[in-house]
Amino acid sequence: MTKPVLEINNLQTHFFTDRGEIPAVDDVSFSINAGEVLGIVGESGCGKSVTSLSVMGLVPNPPGKIVGGEILFRRQEGRDKAEDLVKVSRKRLRAIRGDQIAMIFQEPMTSLDPLFTIGHQIIEAVRNHRKVTKKQARAKAVEMLKLVGIPRAEEIVDEYPHQLSGGMRQRVMIAIAMSCDPEVLIADEPTTALDVTIQAQILELMKDLNRKKGTAIMMITHDLGVVAEICDRVVVMYAGKIVEEGDVRTILKSPKHPYTQGLIRSLPKMSNRDSRLYSIPGNVPKPGSIKQGCRFAARCPEVFDRCTQESPELLNLGEGHGCRCFLYEKEGKIVNV
């Protein structure tokens, strides 16, 4: 059986602040197979982006630090041999980052350097990881711009980020990330702040790259419409923990965890134009503020006494469907972690 290209086991990323130690990511485990699109879903502050930054080795230190767990990366050649990205040297991590694992950041205007042309930034990414001439790297830059659907690529390559629209800048970010044919692509809300037409084009582009290149994609989003459009499997996070996981059809059609049910119920429906939109009461708790019990208990419509006293385990409900909730103890088995 082929092993996953990226496997995260019991990851713990904490921030050390004046208020004490804050567990932003608390004992998170999941994996991604080659050619698969995995969605990481949840409200702002649930630990999605910190998880992705942990994989990339970009958690700001201080105050952040990975205090436990492992991030196993397996290259296509020699897939049985895994490197733990938590333990590798900084030099080795820099060699992997941008080459075998790449990331599309949420806001391209703050990620692209305004002082350098689009072409310069793609060329730099290519030459950092490939032994090619500047001319060959420029040709690769033009090729990548064409691949992501940018017109007049030969001219755009010499333009600056401020000369492009938001959708075009996001395409440039994808071009930079894909320039070295990574095995894993992490996309941190890549369609945020884009209009729906451009959003659809970006998602179609990512699906096309996934099909053609066989790239494993970790899609971080709070938009369940994006999940339904592009993802194969879904991991739902809340307050630093995974509360539910499974294939996209199961999660969207038969969600088990009250939080997942609330997220799906919050989606606007064309058939209910006159009714008020549903929203989950309350807010995501501050990381580390809940010391005992289920972290969703204060907002949960199904809460009972045990929920405020004990923390539920992640239960295996069968066929890769997991849920962290006491309601399903009789039908599930505790996941061995």
How would you portray this structure in words?
Helix 4 (118-129) packs across helix 5 (134-147). The strands form two sheets. This protein has a nine-stranded mixed β-sheet with strand order 6-7-8-3-9-10-12-11-13, sandwiched between helices. A four-stranded antiparallel β-sheet has the order 2-1-4-5. It is built from eleven helices and 13 strands. Helix 8 (196-213) links the parallel strand 7 and strand 8 (216-221). The model has no long low-confidence stretch (mean pLDDT 88). It is an alpha/beta fold. The two termini are 20 Å apart. It has helices at residues 48-56, 90-96, 108-111, 118-129, 134-147, 153-156, 166-178, 196-213, 224-230, 248-253, 258-265, and strands at 6-17, 20-32, 37-41, 64-73, 83-84, 101-104, 184-188, 216-221, 233-238, 241-247, 315-316, 322-323, 333-334.
Brief overview:
This protein is α/β, with parallel strands linked by helices. The chain contains eleven helices and 13 strands.
- Neighbour order of strands in the largest sheet: 6-7-8-3-9-10-12-11-13
How many angstroms does the end-to-end distance come to? 20 Å
Radius of gyration: 21 Å
User: What structural class do the secondary elements suggest?
Assistant: alpha/beta
Characterize the main sheet. Answer: 9 strands, mixed
Work out the helix count. Answer: 11
Shape: globular
Low-confidence stretches: none
Kindly estimate the percentage of residues that lie in beta strands according to DSSP.
15-25%
Helix/strand order, N-terminal first: EEEHEEHEHHHHHEHEHEEHHEEE
Oligomer: single chain
User: What's the helical proportion of residues?
Assistant: 25-40%
Number of strands: 13
Overall pLDDT: 88
